[in-house]
Amino acid sequence: MARRNNATFTLDQTYGFGYGDRSLIQAFYRALNDLCPGDMPIPIPPESQVHPQHDAETQAFIFADYAVRGIAQIALHALRVAGVERYVATLEQLDPITDKVSAKAAADAARVASYRLIDAAAELNPGADPGAYRAAKAANANAANAALLAAEAADAPDALKTRKTRFGASFAAHAAVEAAELNPDATWAAVNAMLQAL
């Protein structure tokens, strides 16, 4: 994907530190800015609509939850081919990510979907678009990384916790960009809901 390099994308001005902890929101949007193709619009809600009420650790769980139980599922649904139903069902049945245990379980489920999805679905659907499989695989792998980092941050010392939670938010952005290739409307709706939950 081409880097956006958009000089008008003034994230630091839009999402400063004046209201709540916005560091993860900044990490998320910086990653979107770097990853999105130049012709893919990034919907940025007005600052007045984003009021994070939680600390960074809780926000990391929220990013992970939406990445796995929302964005990764969107990517799988978008394939519309045989062989992915059980992976979608596995993600749908996950408990919400609210702590280290649920984050690890979600990471495992998304990683299984990612690593087994391409081979299983491609064998059943040899004529399907390989780019769609790649995007769905990447969305699930990145969602798994977001969940794993949220779990690791829970027990990390403060300095390391900050790094892990920000990297987790960045991985959620990676998942969103991949899913947006397949279903942009549903993906950006999930991102907006995620921001409101922070």
Q: Tell me the radius of gyration.
A: 16 Å
Low-pLDDT regions? 1-20
Order of helices and strands: HHHHHHHH
Into which percent range does the helicity of residues fall? 55-70%
Total helical segments: 8
Write the layout of secondary structure elements.
Blueprint: H1 11-14, H2 23-35, H3 56-79, H4 85-92, H5 100-124, H6 130-154, H7 158-182, H8 184-197
Helix pairs in contact: 2-7, 3-4, 3-5, 3-6, 3-7, 3-8, 4-5, 5-6, 6-7, 7-8
Summarize the structure.
The chain has 198 residues and is mostly helical. It has eight helices and no strands.
Describe it for me?
The protein has 198 residues and is mostly helical. It has a domain at 69-198. It is 70% helix and 0% strand. It contains eight helices and no strands. It has helices spanning 11-14, 23-35, 56-79, 85-92, 100-124, 130-154, 158-182, 184-197. α4 (85-92) packs antiparallel against α5 (100-124). It is globular. The two termini are 28 Å apart. Residues 1-20 have low confidence and may be disordered.
